[in-house]
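Teaching note: in complex prediction, the entire set of molecules is handled at once rather than each chain in isolation. The prompt given to students was simply: 'Predict the structure of this complex.' The entities are:
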Amino acid sequence: MVQDKTLSSRLFDIVNYALLTIIALIAFIPFVHVVAGSFTTSAEIAAKKFVLIPTVYSLDAYQYIFSTNTIFRAMSVSVVVTLVGTAFSMLVTALLGYALARRDLDGRRVLMFMVVFTMLFNGGLIPTFLVVREVGLIDSYAALVVPIAVNAFNLIILKNFFQNIPEGLEESAKIDGCNDFGILFRIVLPLSLPAIATISLFYAVTYWNTYLNAILYLNDAAKWPIQVLLRQIVILASGLDADASLDSEVPPPDQAVKMAVIVVATIPILAVYPFLQKHFAKGALLGSIKG
Amino acid sequence: MRKKSMLLVLSAMLAFVLVLSACSDQSGSNNNQPSPSADSGSASEKPSEAPPANEEPTEITIMLPLNIAETPPDTIKTELEKLTNTKLTYQFFPADTYEEKLNASFATGSLPQVTYLKNQATFIKFKEAIRDGQFWEIGPYLSEFENLGKLKESILNNTKVDGKIYSLYIGRPLARQGLIYRKDWADNLGLSAPQTTEDLFAMAKAFTEDDPDKDGQDNTVGLTDRNDLIYGAFKTLSSAFGTPNNWGEKDGQLLPEFMFPEYIETMDYMKRLRDAGYMNKDFAATSKTDQVNMFQSGEAGLYIGSMQDVNSLYNNLVKNVPTAEVATHNKITKPGGEFGIWAIPGYNNVVLFPKSAIKTEDELKKVLAFFDKMMTPEVANLMYWGIEGTHYTVVDGKAKEMDDKDKIEREVKGFKDSVIGEPETNGQYTGYHELQARIDAEKFIIENEPVAIHDPTAPLDSATYTEKGQELQKIITDATYQYIYGDIDKAGFEKAIEDWKSRGGQKIIDEYTAAYKANQ
Amino acid sequence: MQEARAEVLELIPPKPRRHSELKKRIWKNKLLYLMALPGILFFILFKYVPMYGLVISLQDFKPYQGIRGSEWVGLEHFKRLFTEPDFLMILTNTLVLFGMNLLFFFPIPIILALMLNEVRIAVFKRTVQTLVYIPHFMSWVIIVSISYVMLTMDGGIINELIAYFGGEKINFLLSSEWFRPMYILQVIWREAGWGTIIYLAAIAAIDPGLYEAARIDGAGRFRQIWHITLPAIRSVIIVLLILKIGDVLELGFEHVYLLLNSMNRGVGEIIDTYVYTAGLQQGQFSYSTAIGFFKSFIGLILVMAANWLAKRMGEDGVY
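The expected output is the structure of the full assembly:
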């Protein structure tokens, strides 16, 4: 790649790098605060208000949350649900998305409108609950996946990416004897890696953040994912649930514990992104095939 | 052309939804069959309902809010099953979304045999369904049980719906509110416990201005408060000024507290405190955590709220300020006033027994028998304090928690909020405390009882209040803060009251007054 | 249900075309329909079937009576909403926050993505990308409580700084003037980095040869961005814009609720927070549903208008 070294280009770079550094720092500082808070004591958090570098180090919070197997159990539920759910969602979404991206599909506009319609109107909690129950999903892990398997937003985005693939490529594949499945899996998907990575990430994050469905559809607390534990601790520790905080016989969880749970519950999903990042560069693939 | 086709699509969509709704309505009604539509049955879903043979443990499923970090392990449950000859399934759901779960379960007929609500507000919401006969009326059975019969008449009275008892209550001390303050600061400045609101004001002033921690820096403030007019400082202060509790009688009418001059006096007092900087300026946006932080970091010296908070406040405070001392205090009045303190209706939650899950009177009696046993000292102690020797020991006839607080919190505390009655009725131990301020607090709580100011509307009903009382209350809450912050004046506050009245408040006044007179 | 679907398909005469021809084309694409089937079934089962729940907005719904047993009240609940004394205020607040979202938040991820795209040092790019993406995983509770700690007049860092430089402390948390800026800044802070992901994916699909050619033609950085990058991601931007417009309702209930207090309610109360208070009351299922329906309806109108506009401008739109 040729680098242009004009003055204005250099100036652009300097400003750009400086701005991005500042933005990155602003985005990062609160997380540093949370991590620092998790490695210190509640007393320090109370006294310092905004801890960035603790003066007292303590692993108590981590010891506390790892002293039972609840967090491990909840984490494994979340990891499995996220992996299986993302794979399942991607499959169904890609199949439907591809069909809808094909301009020769009759009724695609109606179908797309129907999809958009569901983004705006929903029947509400109780009717959905009844469907989930009729399908027999109550108390099964599938209840965390199937009822949210296709996200309309993700579907539309994916379809849009598919649409931008030059139709000529598909035509030539058809001539080579590929059927629609073949075209999707051999041509379209490999050419859409950045989009696949993006939408997988969106799904993964949705599954990782699953909270209310777990409480509604799973009566057995042993099946709950990590978000239930995280949210419960954050809400209690922040003194937001008035009834719970009224009963001083049950003091709210420690602030340091709150921070530690946030760290533990966030790190795995944070780690997904850098892992997917390499696929964003591979989009250059398209150019090479075309050329 | 396009417009037309879109119109067609749109109408087709609507038709589609309608067709679907037609077929789904059927599935809806299929679902409704097992749902609590009066006495029809849903045997398929609950294997736990098979009628047990004699001596076989009763199977009971219990749904209740989770007020701690995680669902407790089976330690207590196993013991409980042994003591009560039951087979229990506890379903804890996070308190914060408990109402969603409750509504979904209720609307789909899947409430378990024993359903704890979340708080009094949830109870009010369920009254309509209770009237409709969705839950067992248990009043007539109570006398059949030795221990359930001991439940306090006055509190049961507050939980009645149209004069009938449908629920068991989880008891709470009537009035735990009072003052917690920095004893060492007061001593440094030569101040004694405040007797009047003016003493309190002087103390807040001295704590802010006179360097009570003697570190030569201007880094302290008097009162720390939060965004809660009820359990924060405001309502407790309003009692000191002699304001009625939520509602008061005036000229034969029940009127809301904010129509009494004492309420205005309280607002003026808070305004003075805040304007002078003797309390946290942002209190209307301060959460309990941030409020408590100000006290625990050694920044603020006064805390008005539940006096039982003193333990956790003190324990965390001494980590930052090892020399700190705290004291509790009550009986603050306005100069020349008479002491009184607002009281809750004696319970903080209730248990209901859905007819959809309990089919027969027989079964109901078995479930009630479980609660009857729960009100024996042995079971009540197990659920409140844990296992003797493991979670607590008995010192001077009181329960003293063992040192492993984490273990207690994990294993026992989840069950604490489900114990029926109170120590006087279920015979459970009261707590043993070492912190003097807490010992005092417990004493003050008992002393508060005879002078408690009760809410006259607690046993009464107002249809308008149930429908939009909370929404209307927002007008008053906002106006109260705005007055304290100086955004509106007395005329503005009067206007808010007029607004409240015209939007349904007057109807609430009339309905409560009528119910009040009928009740006398 | 099958019948209903067929009916819908038949209702659309795409172009004057004979039925047998249509049938032939459908048969030719049978595999495509098969591929679409699981997804379509999902939407029918979990999205369309539950929609019968919307009818409770026309009822006085009682959970224990079910939809069949509840009393029909017609448009009663809608009337109540429109005659609510605060209705105009709530609607205005909602629309203002929505407008701010569109105006101040929407462009930011695009700009950020473009900035990131200009970074040549891979490590720097990846690091920045990862860092700006983190805030999305902090819940609003945490973000609002961190903001509180920084902004409070009782020793918050920002106000201490203002005071240190001789300024007057600003009442950020309890004022109507600061509510909206605070809201939008927090939204930007939390979601900007997350929002770049889609754009970065779209940018990744651009043929690098285009830049090369532009550079040979002597185009500067801004001209490259303007003539190559932006046009390449235009369709994504438009799709997202339309979807965002349909999202008038999603202003983040939890976020607004946490920021709301008695002093800023006049500008901060939005439809979502109002529904929450209304829903707190007994028997308000129907009222809440009616309000939700109203919100969705506005969203639908806006989406259809935006889509129509996009199509007029020669874009694909979302449907």
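Point out the following to students. The first strand of chain B starts at residue 58 and ends at 66. The mean pLDDT of chain B is 88.
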